[in-house]
Automatic annotation (TrEMBL), chain A:
Catalysis: reaction(s): a quinol + 2 Fe(III)-[cytochrome c](out) = a quinone + 2 Fe(II)-[cytochrome c](out) + 2 H(+)(out)
Cofactor: heme
Keyword annotations of the record: Membrane, Transmembrane, Transmembrane helix
Annotated transmembrane regions: 44-63, 109-128, 140-160, 205-230, 251-279, 329-350, 371-389, 409-427
Protein name: Cytochrome bc1 complex cytochrome b subunit
EC class name: translocase
EC number from the UniProt entry: 7.1.1.8
Gene assigned in the entry: qcrB_2
Basic and acidic residues biased stretches: 520-543
Amino acid sequence: MNAPPKAITGPSTFLDDRLGAGNFLKRNLRKVFPDHWSFLLGEIALYSFVILLLTGTFLTFWFKPSMGEVNYLGNYAPLYDVRMSEAYASSLHISFDIRGGLLVRQMHHWAALLFVAGMTAHALRIFFTGAYRKPRELNWLIGVGLLTLALLEGLTGYSLPDDLLSGAGLRITQGVAQSIPIVGTYISFFLFGGEYPGHDVIPRFYTIHILLIPGILLALISAHMILMWVQKHTQMPGKARTEKNVVGAPFYPAFMAKSGAFFLFTFGVIALLGTFAQINPIWLFGPYNPANISAGSQPDWYMGFLEGALRLMPAWEINFLGHTVTFSVLIPALVPMGIIMTGLALYPFLEQWVTGDRREHHVCDRPRNNPHRTSIGISAITFYGILWLLGANDEISSVFHIDLYTTTWVGRFAVFIGPAIAYWITYRICIGLQRKDAEVLSHGVESGVIKRMPNGQYIEVHTPPAEDIAEHIRGKKEIPMLVGSADGDGIPPKGARSAIGRLRTKMSEAYGTDHVPLTDGHHNGHHEEEHAAVGAGERKELH
Amino acid sequence: MIGTGISVNSITARRRHPLARVAVVALALGLLGGGYALAAPNGSTADAAIASGKADDAAEGKSLFVAHCASCHGFNAEGSNKAPTLIGVGAAAVDFQVSSGRMPAADAGPQAPRKPRPDWATDQAIDQLSAYVQSLGGGPTRPTEEQVNPALGDPAKGGELFRANCIQCHNFVGAGGALTYGKYAPPLNPATPTQIYEAMVTGPQAMPVFNDSTITPEQKRDMIAYITHVRSQVDPGGSGLGRIGPVTEGLVAWVVGLSLLILASIWITAKKRRAQA
C-alpha cells in the first residue's frame, strides 16, 4: 500500500495525538455486523428520529406555542377572519405561507408515524427471535421505555397545532386524567393550569414535545446503541455462527455504506409520502372549540388501540364513598396499555423464571423453534390489533355498511376470544414448520425427479438441503426446563414443592418440551437420497 | 257469452266439465291481470298530459303521487304503517327526497340511500309532485336560486356554523359518518346546494331540522358556500386519502411506508460483498 499523502497524515496525526481517536477507530471500524433484513427495522426508527429532529427544528422557527386569540388573516380563504389560537394560526401560516412549510410539516408527521411503526416492527423482531435474552434484558427495557415515550411524544406533538381533531385528543387526555380516582380532578387542574382547556396546555406541551421528551429519547437511543455496540449484535443461526463469534460485514466500509444507503431510503420514502399523501390537514379540521367534535375523530395510529378500548368499553360507573369511579374511561385508558407495556417489560424475566435459563444468548431463535413464545406474541398482537381495528369502528361501519353496534359487540367478544384462537393456530403452525424442518434434514428436499425401478416401483429422488439451509435449521436450540420430578426417595426438588413451584415446573415443562426433535438424515453422506414415492413408509400417492 | 246462442242447459253441462274449474281460474286471472295493466301506474299518460300543458301542477302531482308514492304514504298522503304522512312536510322535502333518488325507496332498510332517479322523476315531475304535497298542508318551500348561490355566501362564517352543527355526523369535510342501528350521515359531496338547503329545513331521515330561527337563510347560504368551497378544493398536500383523518393515514404509513422500507432493507441486505480478488 502507498503511504497516504502528507496533507492527510499531518492533520490526522495532530488530532490523534490530542484525542487518541486512532486506536478507538482502529478497534471499532472493523466491528462486524451480521446481515439480515430484519436487523434494519430498528434503523427505520433511528433514521425517522433523525428526520424528526431536522424537520421539527424547521417547524419551531415559525410555530407560536400560544393560546392567545387572533383573527386569521392569511391565505387560506375558508378560514379568513376566523377567531383562533396563535398556535393554530401559525400552523396554518407554516402550511400556506412558508415556502416548503407544508412539505416539511407533512414529512414531520409521516416520519412520526414511521418512527413508531419502525419501533414496533423492531420490537416484534426482537421478541420473536428471543434477542432480548441475557445479556440484553436491560437494552430491551430501554427499548420499552423508548416506545412508551414515543407514544407520549406523539400525543404532545399532534396536540400542538390546536386544531379541532387535536382538541378531541386533548379532551380525551383530560377525561383520562379525571377518571383517576381521588386525584383525577387535581391532576387535570395541574396539567391544564386550571379549567380545561385554559391557556397553559399548548406552551407546556410545546416544551415537553421539543425539549424534554426528545432529550430523554436522544439519551436513551444513545444508550441503546452503545449497549448494542458493546454487547455486539445478535445473529441468526447458520453456518459457522456460534455464541462466541459474529459473522457478517465489517462496520467500515460495508455496513457503513449499507446503513448510509438505508438512511437515504428512509428519507426518500418519507419525502415521497410528504409530497404525495396529505397528512393531518389541519385547515380542514378548523380551529379547536371544545363545543365542536367531528365524526371520524381518531388519533394517530399508535394511539388507536387506546381509542378502540375506549369505544368497546361498556358504560360502567360506580360511586364509592362519595367518589365517582368511571370505569368506562379508567379501564380502557390503563388496562390495555398496562398489559402490553408491562408484559413487554417483564417478558424476559418471566421467561427466565419459567425456563430457569441463565445462559447468555447471542444466536437468535427462529420463531417456530420456541412455539409458546411465538404464540404468546401473536396473541398479544391479536389483542392489540382488535383494539386497534375497533378504534376505527365508525369508519368500518360507514365504509362496509355494518351496523355500528354490531362492530362494538363483535369487538367486545373478539378481544377475549381472538387471542386464544390466535394462540392455538400459531402454536400449530410452529409445530408444523418444525416438522417440515425435521423432514428437510432427515429426508432432504424434493428434486422433482421420479424414477421408475425395474420392478415397477416409483421412487422420488430427494437431494440433501443446501449446506447453509441445513445449518440454519440445525441452529435450533433446546429450551431448558426446570427439573420438577421427584428424586429416588419420592421427594421433589426444593423449588417445586409449593403450589407456585409446582405451577412453575409445569409451565417450564410445557414451555420447553421439544415435540419435534431434529434427527440427522439417515442417508447422510449420500449425494442423492432416494425414497420410495409409492410405499407404506412414505404414504405419498402419485396420481 | 250472452247472445252466442248457447242454451242454459249446455252451459250447466259445461260447468260440470272437468276442465271448467281450470277455465274459470284462467279467466279470472286474465281479467285481473288485464284490469291491472289498464289501471296500473303508467308514466306515459301523465307525460302526455304534462306535455300538452292541460292540467295544473297540483292535479298532475296528485296523479304522480298516486302512481309512485301512495302505496306506502297512502292515497291522500295520510301515511301508513310503512311510511309517515306527507301532510305538512312541504315542497322542500319532496324535492330533496325525489331529486336525490332517495324516494321512492327501494326497500325498507334503516335508511333510504341516494340513488339514480327513476325515469319518470323529471324536474317537471318533481315540480308537480312538490306542488301537490305543498297544497296538502303547507310546510317548508323550496329555496330560490339566490338563497343557495354559494358565490353570495361567506365560507369562513359558514365554516364556523358547519363545524358547530354538522360535522359531528357528516365529518369535518362532509365525507359522511356512521350513526347507530345501521343509519348513517351520508357524504355531502354529491348533494347540490339546493338539496343541502332543503335537508337543513326539512331534516330528512335521521337528520334534525335546522329551521330559519335556528339558522337564518343567510347563514344557510354561508354554510353551503363553505361546503361547496371545501369539497371543490384541490388538496394542497397531495392525495387527500379519502379526507377521513388518521385512519387512512395510519394505513398508508404501514402498508406503503413501512412496506417500502422493508423491501429496501431486504434488497440492501441481499447484496453480498464480493469476495476480494
